[in-house]
Every structure is written in C-alpha cells, then in structure tokens.
Automatic annotation (TrEMBL):
Gene that this sequence comes from: dhaL
Gene Ontology MF terms: glycerone kinase activity
Name assigned to this protein: Dihydroxyacetone kinase subunit L
Annotated GO biological process: glycerol catabolic process
InterPro entries in UniProt: DhaK_L_YcgS, DhaL_dom, DhaL_dom_sf, Dihydroxyacetone_Kinase
Keywords from the named record: Kinase, Transferase
Top-level division of the source organism's lineage: Bacteria
Gene3D superfamilies per UniProt: 1.25.40.340
Domain DhaL: 1-188
GO cellular component term of the entry, any: cytosol
Amino acid sequence: MVEWLRASTEAVRAEADRLTELDSAIGDADHGTNMRRGFTAVMTTLEAEEQATPGGVLLVAGRTLVSTVGGASGPLFGTLLRRSGKALGEAERVSDGDLRDALETGVAAVGQLGGAALGDKTMLDALLPAVAELPDYAAAARAAEQGSKATIPLRAHKGRASYLGERSVGHEDPGAASAALLLGALFQVAR
Ligand code: ADP
Ligand code: MG
C-alpha cells in the first residue's frame, strides 16, 4: 500500500501541470496543485509514522488528503482511501480479492458523498469501470484510462464543471484523469 501511494505521488507530481490545465478548461485551475499538495502530505505522514497494517496505511493516507486538500477532490479521494482502509480492517495480509472488495467499498462511498453517478463527468467515470475489472490490475488501469477519456464528450452534472453546462463538453475531467493515474500506479506496483 505504501508503494502504491508512493507511485501515485510520483505520477501526480509528474502530471500536475496537465491536471491543472484540464481544470483550467472546466474548473478553477487548481486540481494539479491540490493533488500534488495532498499526496506530498500523504508521503510525509507515512514516512513520519509507520503503520502496522495495509488498512492503516490507506486510512491515514485518506485522512491526510481530507485535511490537506481544500478542493472537492480532497474529501472525495480521501474518502476513497479512508473507506477502503477501513474495509481492510486490522488484517496484516491482504489478498487481491480483499483489495478489490475494499476498493469497491471505497468507490461506493465516493458516490454516496458526492452524489454522482456514472456518466456525470467525474472521477467516478474512471473509478467505477476500473474496480469492475479488479483484481486484473492491467485491465483496471486500462479501464480507468478509457473511462477518463470517455468523459471528453460528456456534459458535467456534478462539481464546479457543472456550472458550465454545455460548455463543459469537449474536455477531459481532471478528477477522472487523476483517478487513472492512481490505477496506473496500482498496476505498476502490482506487476
Ligand atoms: P474543486 O472542484 O473544488 O476545485 P478539484 O479541482 O481538486 O476541486 O477537483 C475537481 C474534480 O473533483 C472534478 O474533476 C471531479 O472529477 C471531482 N468531483 C467534483 N465534484 C464531484 C462529485 N460530486 N462527485 C465525484 N467527483 C467530483
Ligand atoms: Mg478545481
């Protein structure tokens, strides 16, 4: 789990400018900055206090995202990790199936918190098809990437981009692009 978050942090850092550019088209141009700040804080926290269990790692990472990211993406990605961590519980070893179940729970919690559904042009358009492919990490990463690109022709129905109405059409959703980075990082470390 630590390696997953480390690889995610590296991906977010490398792609922060692109994420902010996506958010400048249909939002307020802070998504890359938000994600970079959040994940940098996650790594600082994890390095400061070693966690005893995989679930504990995700729980602490999620809490850190919630408390360090002001934008909508902080509570949403924070909830994804926090609820997934909670679902893993105190287990010292986690199987691929356990992780799939936990992430499914985490993604469902994101849907509950934000009230978005598939096709609303949010991070869920990458997360939902991805978890459906787990525990095939390669297929999940591919599905997240495709799901993110599939947001381009959609009109946003949730979040800041929804204020643009029709004008949100033709742009990739930044949060979905970030979700694809996280799933890509998971594939990378699982391999
Ligand atoms: P903010 O919109 O507050 O500036 P960010 O720019 O960091 O926050 O994140 C924007 C991303 O958050 C969007 O691209 C979208 O994927 C995601 N998002 C916003 N609102 C919701 C929601 N209600 N449900 C799911 N995801 C959402
Ligand atoms: Mg924004």
